[in-house]
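Wait, can you check?
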Amino acid sequence: MNDFAPKVVVSGKSLTLVLEGYRFSIQIHRIETETEWTLEVIAPGGHSTVWLESFETARDARDTALSALEDMGPQAFLRTSDPDQPETGALSAG
């Protein structure tokens, strides 16, 4: 059994918000020994979208998530009824 489990640091910039009646969780975290942050948006029902890039600051990650939700709309983050769609998605900030 591996006794080493990296500690995950959750940013204070993580937040929950409601858009058009849908509750989204913006999760920003990093491994304790790392300096860059990862970004995940969790939609109702647990559908998760994770960005492929990491971010230098938690603020950059949060701002990217908020911009994506505004630009693409919350519907873009909701799970489709298409059974061929993956359970989680990935986005690029570029």
User: Anything to note?
Assistant: DSSP finds one helix and six strands in the chain. Residues 64 and 93 are 7 Å apart (CA to CA).
